């Protein structure tokens, strides 16, 4: 056998054995982001193979050449619709069927985002039985910590059915269901969460290492056998594999575990949002739940969770294209996993409907502190998102505290006057500051006219000393 024949035989064998594959986030039943460019990517054993990708919505071919076995294309997507196929051609052919075009959201955080109907949910049986939506799709990312970024994650897209929904994130489901019912487009939900995790594990380690203060703060998180505590370890295994997949935005429910280093959350949480946006190369909307009241320590009015809430409020007010769903009226002081996940998902969806999708006449936020005005021995509080007035649920306003120059806070009385609140106490003749619901287990009762609760806040910037 001469050299030419040997070469041809070897080449034929090599091509015959060539294999093409993609990450699991690309599969049957997936939802691709509408009116965008969906990245379709993968690998091949033939290092410089020519790859062609076709979406059957228009049958236009997009072609690329693999580089060292890695390939990707940008596949333009149409308006919402389907089902379609995505066809990938090389020396073998892949076909992904039942593909929808719609709106894709990532849901991430710790246990309150992870919590499924099987773990505890109001009216769970009825909600599960009614969860038949073929145009809502789920992708569950398994919990996996790794020391280096991973290019793929186990998982598959599935239709929303009672069987799949009962083990999926309740908050993500109710968020997606609200979007689906209001927008009438397919919804793709990617759930990537892990109970007990602090924010630092969701940020790449090399990003945190650039800030010595944050790295030191991350060391205050104790190590547990049930969840990771080291910077970047959840990001590496559970977020990095998704960063090429085009999304509409993210929802987030996390913060309880950062009571251990609460003051650093003013920096770490905005950093998470900035980092994810950079990794996706997209300034996508990021909506999050403010953590609910819980009796962490029955003996005193602890402020660690209050500081986390304040950092969340700070983030909403200082990071563009973010929104916060307040949960201080739907918590449970005896259960850190309150079961009214329907309302959490709905409140997050209100932000998306109003700010991302431009749905008019949607009230999406409760009252947010704007400014204070001194009036003798009283302080007048002004709010955003209260243009139609304020209301309370109950006979008297709760959880207002007022202080003078000595920085000692006394419980205060409050009166609603239109869209302002007047706060005063006989113990403080010359007030300087007000705090509202500013301790871990505070359960306030101030709302706007549309029934959304006011966020906890403080008007001062005094140093808070923690144990």
UniProtKB/TrEMBL annotation:
Keyword Glycosyltransferase: no
Keyword check for Hydrolase: yes
Keywords: Hydrolase
Pfam families according to UniProt: SASA
Domain Sialate O-acetylesterase: 103-349
InterPro entries registered for this protein in UniProt: SASA, SGNH_hydro_sf, SIAE
Entries under PANTHER family matching the protein: SIALATE O-ACETYLESTERASE
Protein name in UniProt: Sialate O-acetylesterase
């Amino acid at each position: 056998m001469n050299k030419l024949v040997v070469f041809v035989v070897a080449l034929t064998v090599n091509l015959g054995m060539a294999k093409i594959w993609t990450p699991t986030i690309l599969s049957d039943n997936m939802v691709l982001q509408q009116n965008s460019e969906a990245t379709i990517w993968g690998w091949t054993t033939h290092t410089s193979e020519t790859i062609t990708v076709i979406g059957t919505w228009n049958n236009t071919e997009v072609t690329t050449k693999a580089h060292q076995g890695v390939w990707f294309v940008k596949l333009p997507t149409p308006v919402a619709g389907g089902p379609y196929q995505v066809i990938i051609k090389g020396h073998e052919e892949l076909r992904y069927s039942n593909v929808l075009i719609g709106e894709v959201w990532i849901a991430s955080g710790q246990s309150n985002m992870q919590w499924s109907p099987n773990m505890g949910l109001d009216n769970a049986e009825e909600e599960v039985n009614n969860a038949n939506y073929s145009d809502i799709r789920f992708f569950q990312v398994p919990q996996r910590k790794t020391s280096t970024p991973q290019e793929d994650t186990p998982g598959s897209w599935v239709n929303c059915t009672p069987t799949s929904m009962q083990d999926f994130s309740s908050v993500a489901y109710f968020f997606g269901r609200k979007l689906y019912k209001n927008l009438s487009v397919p919804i793709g939900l990617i759930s990537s969460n892990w109970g007990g995790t602090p924010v630092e594990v969701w940020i790449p380690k090399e990003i945190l290492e650039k800030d010595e203060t944050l790295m030191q703060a991350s060391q205050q998180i104790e190590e547990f056998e049930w969840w990771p505590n080291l910077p970047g370890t959840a990001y590496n295994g559970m977020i990095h594999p998704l960063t090429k997949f085009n999304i509409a935005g993210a929802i987030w429910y996390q913060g309880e575990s950062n009571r251990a280093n609460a003051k650093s959350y003013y920096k770490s949480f905005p950093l998470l949002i900035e980092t994810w946006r950079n990794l996706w190369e997209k300034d996508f909307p990021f909506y999050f739940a403010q953590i609910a009241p819980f009796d962490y320590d029955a003996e005193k009015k602890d402020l660690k969770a209050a500081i986390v809430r304040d950092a969340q409020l700070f983030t909403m007010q200082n990071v563009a294209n973010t929104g916060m769903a307040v949960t201080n009226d739907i918590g449970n002081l005896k259960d850190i996993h309150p079961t009214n996940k329907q309302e959490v998902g709905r409140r997050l969806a209100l932000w998306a409907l109003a700010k991302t999708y431009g749905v008019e006449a949607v009230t999406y936020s409760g009252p947010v502190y704007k400014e204070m005005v001194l009036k003798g021995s009283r302080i007048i509080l002004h709010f955003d998102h209260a243009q139609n007035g304020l209301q309370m649920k109950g006979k008297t306003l709760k959880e207002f505290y007022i202080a003078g120059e000595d920085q000692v806070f006394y419980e205060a009385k409050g009166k609603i006057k239109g869209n302002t609140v007047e706060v005063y106490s006989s113990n403080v003749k010359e007030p300087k500051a007000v705090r509202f619901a500013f301790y871990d287990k505070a359960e306030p009762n101030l709302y706007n006219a549309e029934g959304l609760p006011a966020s906890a806040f403080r008007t001062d910037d005094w140093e808070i000393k923690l144990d």
